Amino acid sequence: MTDTKTAVHSAWSSRFAFILAATGSAVGLGNIWKFPYITGENGGGAFVLVYLLCVLVIGIPIMIAETMLGRHSQKNPIDAMAYLTKEAQADSNWHYLGWMGVIAGLLILSYYSVIAGWATAYVLKAFTGSFYVDNPAEIKTLFDDFVASPVQLIFWHTLFMLATMLIVVRGVNNGLEKAVQYLMPVLFFLMLLLVGYAMTTGSYFQGLHFLFSPDFSKLTANAVLTAMGHAFFTLSLGMGAIMVYGSYLPKDVSIAKTAVLIAGADTVVALLAGIAIFPIVFANNLHPDSGPGLIFQTLPIAFGSMSGGWLVGILFFVMLVVAALTSSISLIEPAVAWLVESKGFTRERACVWSGLATWALGLGTVLSFNAWSEVKFFERTIFQLLDYLTANLMLPIGGFCIAIFAGWMMQQKHSIAELAMPNDLSYQVWKLLISYVAPAAVFFVFLHVIGVL
User: What is the CA radius of gyration of the chain?
Assistant: First the structure.
């Protein structure tokens, strides 16, 4: 680490600040948008049980490893992997793992911002009463007309990216830390309000039964793999975010205990989303297996027909925007940190360049829903290609490599020192999980998503 870099590298003010930030990174559209619909598609309770098991034996060990690599190096992901590779006397190609994480974060944010822009627009639609229609088919038309307009999508995409950059430009303590100190409590408060409303729908216990009563006859091999993959991706692993956040973590904080708390909070949010959404779905005779359209095309029908639906719809989409913001700031922070620490950029300049590049790339996603909808690469639109490239290829490879590096390449004395574990059973369990179980599971998921299995 150079003297210049040491001077500019920041730190969280407390363990609690890191927990909020890392939980915010993990909690996003995946928890509130994706988890309910994939649970609905895969039969409910049995799927949730497998998901929880995967968080425990795959997600937490890899989160511990990625945080450890960040804190031990005290650098951004690109410089961290260069430093760690040299320290471990490993093959020099390992340093590309840092580059892959940073690039994956920017690629994800480029389309994540567009989807988050939809949620932002839907706050306004809920506020103006757009969900109150005579024919439910009009809700689908509303969505179709919205995504068919490049001007509207660019406006909301730009607005969301500006909000993200205004937070990140203020730095770790005044920007990231202060943002999550307000946004995360707001997120949990809104979630609990929606759960409270779900309890009044008359279908609350039907929703709980669907979510928590396992029916293993509905559990397919594909559902198991989906649960495993989602447990991995929902924790923001393999994209550099947890590594750079870990680099800001004080040395006296227990990585293992903190990772368990973060994974627990992330899982609680996902489960609360299901508890809030499924009673509303059942109370309005909608289908839990409605797929990705559950949030933007199905729930608005419910909001438009329920008592108090105007307020509930506003709260729900505000919650989506808050969750998206806490994730978006973590997706761009690795690139900003690298430009500041390695290239001598001011934080303002680093934010402008990173933000502009991400925003410009996001235009491809915007146009893939309208003007360029027929432009395809490998039979995929630009949005579908970016989603597949990151979620199905880059993140699994990144998570697999983090597990292998932490379990096999990093010197054991360094991992013991960082984890503050004596060489006892707790350390040996983590070592077993990170060296064998987690990489094997991620590799299995990877083979599945590329169609080998």
Answer: 21
* Better-scored residue on pLDDT, 442 or 451: 442
For residue 75, the one-letter residue type is: K
Q: Are 154 and 282 in contact (CB under 8 A)?
A: no
Tokens 């293992």 identify what position?
256
Nearest Cα to 33, choosing from 276, 283, 356, 310? 276
Residue whose token pair is 């289908």? 287
> What does the pLDDT look like over 122-157, one tens digit per residue?
999 999 999 988 787 888 899 999 999 999 999 999
Cβ atoms of residues 299 and 194 within 8 Å: no
Q: pTM of the full predicted structure?
A: 0.89
In DSSP terms, 377 is beta-bridged to 380
Nearest to 28 by CA among 344, 258, 239: 239
Q: What is the largest CA-CA distance in the chain?
A: 68
**Residue 278 confidence class, pLDDT cut points 50, 70, 90:** confident
CA-based nearest residue to 29, from 286, 305, 331: 331
- In whole angstroms, what is the distance from residue 451 CA to residue 447 CA? 6
DSSP code for 254 = -
Residue 30 DSSP one-character state: I
3-state secondary structure of 412: helix
Sorted by where each starts, the structural domains of the chain and their CATH numbers stand as: 3-449 (1.10.4160)
Q: Which among 265, 277, 205 is positioned nearest to 37, based on CA atoms?
A: 277
Per-residue tokens: 159:
């607005």
| Cα–Cα distance, 381 to 154 (Å, whole number) | 17
Q: Whats the size of the chain, residue-wise?
A: 453
Contact by Cβ (8 Å): 364, 382: yes
